[in-house]
Amino acid sequence: MNHHSGLTQQPVVSNIADFDKMSGTRGERLLFNNRFLIVVACLFATLFFGWKMTTLQLNASFEKMIPTRHPYIVNYLQNKADLVGLGNTIRISVESTKGDIFNAEYLETLRKLNDEVFLMPGVERPYMKSLWTPATRWMGVTEEGMDGGPVIPDDYNGSEQSIKQVRQNVERSGEIGTLVAANFKSSVIAVPLLEKNESTGKRLDYGALSAQLEQVRAKYQTDSIKIHITGFAKIVGDLIQGLRQVMMFFAVAIGIATVILYFHTRCVRSTLLVVSCSLVAVTWLLGILPTIGYELDPYSILVPFLVFAIGMSHGAQKMNGIMQDIGRGTHKLVAARYTFRRLFVAGLTALLADAVGFGVLMVIDIKVIQELAITASIGVMILIFTNLILLPILLSYTGVSVKAAKRAIQSEQSALGKRKHPIWAFLDLFTQRRWAAVAIGVALVMGVSGYWVSRGLKIGDLDPGAPELRPDSRYNRDNAFMAANYGASSDVFVVMVKTPPMLCNQYNTLSQVDALEWRLRQLPAVVTTNSLADLSKNWSMGQYEGNPKWYVLPRMQGLLGATVARAPRELFNQKCDLLTVYVFLKDHKADTLESVVNVAEKFAQDNDTKEVQYLLAAGNAGIEAATNVVVKRANLEMLVLVYLAVMVLSFITFRSWRAIVCAVLPLMLTSILCEALMVFLGIGVKVATLPVIALGVGIGIDYALYILSVTLTRYREGADLSEAYFSALTFTGRVIILTGITLGLGVVTWAFSPIKFQADMGSLLAFMFVWNMIGALILVPSLACFLLKRSPTEEATKLADDKQVHALDAARRVKLKAG
């Protein structure tokens, strides 16, 4: 049997003594001639990283979720010390289900809850606000003139007269719609959070904080009191608490992959080795993360499964190659080395493409995505060792079952026979120009249609509340309650107005602020606004016995100065060189934020001077608006860079631009269709979903590389396209179909997850796993039919081989006639 270089069949060596151990590359000899040492080293590495994995923390950081170098966030962080509760804030609404809030039982419960939350770790206590905090004040017109004080006075004793006074103070506080519901049936405790726990100096543990809040809810919630909790920290806490169910779905996906792989091979030892090597890679990854000081957050929790999925794909290819060689009678060690020779370069290129594809995410200026990119890249680099090196070495010791090996070679021989398997026969049709043209035409129509649909893809959240959680989750029910009762407090966009020191209360400045508020209030998405200008107008009206005709900004500086003396500190800072304009929105959907940003930016461009600047933006909605801007820009940059990276690596491997086109165009179609699917499913592009399409490109290139590697090798050796592609189908195509369907079935089960983020990712990943498989099996040969050309040297060689074959056939016919 001829010894072909590359990916074609090697000579059968049944006796290890007949095999030259010094054959192959230097790397192959180094690895396989020291098998025992490598296995022992991997065993100790697995034990070490398994121990380190137990120290891995699951947490999230508010500042890691935001683009810290975006101008909006730079403005926010520079003035953060003067901004009260405009970043990471928890809101606890205490609802009275029997009557209103003005009763002794409700107010006492609110006091106890307020005091308990006040003492929680990570609370920015000076800026916490509720009816019981001294900073919550009222202001009104009395018989003696303007007066004011804390909403709940120092002499409150729970009597009917005291409660009546509290009601009167609330009505004059200006907090109705923000701190107190308009129907007087609930009130809010606003709890700003620090980034670090002040007692330990460590980053705030959102999982522990969420658990404490749930204990508080259970403690104080009764038949007459209901508690609703919202905020970034609570979202993350709920995601962390739901990770047990996430892990269950991961386990189901791994189980499905294992069962299907076993039914394909009918070999227990090889199936367990493929799964084990993929799990070893995951173990090493989870052990390396705490070693380098990383944590796992809810948004990168999918990375371990992606590493497992990629490992299963490559591991199944190695196992299939070894099984076929053993079925031909080759010794298990020789079979492992043959498979290593044939598939290592293709596997290495595919994994490097994966790693580079993930690494491209580093260009996105959001730290949580950058850490996800590093985590995924580390995982893929680990797979180069565990699945391209360790797995063949382990299989060189264990081999595969005799029945499984015979079954594998029988399947290959039957496929190479005159009667092809219906699936192989169908796929082979796409090496013919007529069928290839139809496939390319259909793909073109799908691409154009998908692009037209994908134009409706939105940046940011498309639903109120937390889209990471189900609409009927407790958090989103709480958020719906907040939106219905506190339309002016759920989503806040803040414009900062910078002035010279001690000049924030000048008439010209406040009149411009008033003009900005008026423009913003014209937007349908804006519920109301609040600022020092608005407070000054209320103060002016109060000076004239509440006559609404005097609801104007006073021109006398003395009156404006008196307003500042009594104004709450969230409206301006101590040096009086920063004003805050609060814009309360009905939701934080992408269109809502875009409309507010457009008006505020236009106003800033028209009115900025050397003395007064209008800076965007603070508040949860302002931060999300900045994030949306970064995500929108990064979405295109990321795709361009990941495709450039994939094309460069493909060119290094194939040295043919035609092969690159064959490999990349199916991936581009998948990307377009994935964006169209996101539009159909109502999924916006945001921090949680941004990496998905890049991950799909990284995973999808594996299929194309394995198909093209075999096809090009056989094609350059003289086989026509049909023969070359059919060789690829019998050698790697079976495993591509196996892994595509297996992984697709594994992740599609996530659709039943209670965490919507995981369900969305499952739908998108299942689509990409399956569609990348279809693209590799149909579009790659279809494009190759029109693009692949032989070089003059290869064509001359093929003609010579054809002449030799014809001469042998002629000689054989002459001999038969003579006989």
Question: What does it look like?
Answer:
- The chain has 819 residues and is of the alpha+beta class.
- The protein has 4 domains: 9-54 and 243-418, Multidrug efflux transporter AcrB transmembrane fold, CATH 1.20.1640; 75-240, no CATH class; 420-455 and 656-806, Up-down Bundle (Multidrug efflux transporter AcrB transmembrane fold); 474-626, Alpha-Beta Plaits (2-Layer Sandwich), CATH 3.30.70.
- 61% of the residues lie in helices and 7% in strands.
- The chain has 26 helices and 9 strands.
- It has helices at 26-32, 35-53, 71-78, 104-118, 160-171, 206-220, 232-241, 243-265, 268-291, 303-327, 332-359, 367-398, 402-416, 422-428, 433-454, 474-485, 507-521, 532-543, 557-566, 590-607, 619-654, 657-681, 691-716, 721-748, 756-787, 792-818, and strands spanning 89-96, 137-142, 145-150, 186-192, 225-230, 491-498, 526-530, 578-585, 613-618.
- It has a 4-stranded antiparallel β-sheet with strand order 7-8-6-9. The protein has a 3-stranded antiparallel β-sheet with strand order 4-1-5, sandwiched between helices. It has a two-stranded antiparallel ribbon with strand order 2-3.
- Strand 2 (137-142) and strand 3 (145-150) form a beta hairpin.
- Helix 9 (268-291) packs antiparallel against helix 10 (303-327), helix 11 (332-359) packs across helix 23 (691-716) and helix 21 packs antiparallel against helix 22 (657-681).
- The longest helix has 36 residues, at 619-654.
- The chain is elongated.
- It starts with 25 loop residues before the first helix and ends with a helix.
- Residues 1-8 and 793-800 have low confidence and may be disordered.
